[in-house]
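Notes, p. 3: input format for complexes.
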Amino acid sequence: KEIDLQAIFDQKIDNEVRIEPKDWMPEAYRKTLIRQISQHAHSEIVGMLPEANWITRAPSLNRKKILLAKVQDEAGHGLYLYCAAETLGVSRIQTLNDLHSGKAKYSSIFNYPTLTWADIGMIGWLVDGAAILNQVPLCRASYGPYARAMVRVCKEESFHQRQGYESLVVLSKGTPEQKAMLQDAMNRWWWPTLMMFGPADDVSSNSELSMRWRIKRFSNDELRQRFVDISVPQAEYLGLTIPDPDLKWNEEKGQYDFGEIDWEEFWNVVKGNGKCNKQRLDARRTAHENGAWVRDAATAYHEKRKQRQLE
Ligand code: FAQ
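Output follows (311 residues plus Phenylacetyl coenzyme A):
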């Protein structure tokens, strides 16, 4: 009797049984996972650049140690995610080539510059905060290696979010100049952070299938709304004004109403025309070229060992 592989797959998805690398899966499922996981990996790797910019200028040894640890964590996240993508049959070099050629996307947020020390705290509080909201449901994604990688990633992101918020609390109790620096950073990071959740649901082309396959559990707009509701009281505690005149508590809905995102800016950044897109890709390409000797040495060592085993 012919086995209905599609039916077995559908049943697993419906019964919350994880799909593993050697299981049969529809090609479209494989393709969308490779797309999302590799873009997620690229975001972690490119995401190191805006913060790395401040490692040498952190205001104290302690802040420097924390920032170094955080940036190294992001490198680790990128590496787990590249491995998770490899389990779907795509090679690491292919995914990297797609990043370097500009074919693959990475999160729009990392194309904004880090102009002051307050920006580093903002990245921890807002950017990692948004990343956690999006990634906690991914711990239950239907694809095993992706879901399992997310567990550790989320634990680390939660430390990142706290260290960012704590550094902003310090600034919020500081001099008038420090408070002004904090508000200026808020004005620049608020809207780009809301854009991280992706386009509005009615134009989110991948959502329907990703939700059906239980890769995504909540829609882009649902997570964005949750983020606003969580962040407003945290901003108030810091004494910050959120740069949105339409932000207002809606008693009936039990959540905040907020203004319209500048979608033209979002798509412009996604298409490669943001403030730092070119700089970010140049930095990644240069790092890859400068690392060629390490890859060559590793390959030569592998060949030598193989040769010895044959002798
Ligand atoms: N930027 O149909 P949808 C982090 C693209 S990690 C650029 O809604 P989907 C840690 C999207 O790819 C941050 N492009 O797509 C950290 C699609 O194009 P495609 C990254 C975006 O996949 C912190 C098109 O628009 N997190 O921050 C963006 O269903 C601090 C249509 O969109 C993840 O990647 C965007 N913001 O939903 C590191 C989480 N939004 O691919 C360092 C995993 C959408 O068809 C420092 N990913 N696009 O050519 C996801 O959850 C989903 O992929 C979404 C997008 C929610 C990002």
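The pocket of Phenylacetyl coenzyme A is lined by residues 35-36, 39-40, 43-44, 47, 74, 105, 107-108, 123, 127-128, 131, 134, 195-199, 204-207, 210, 220, 270 (CB under 6 Å).
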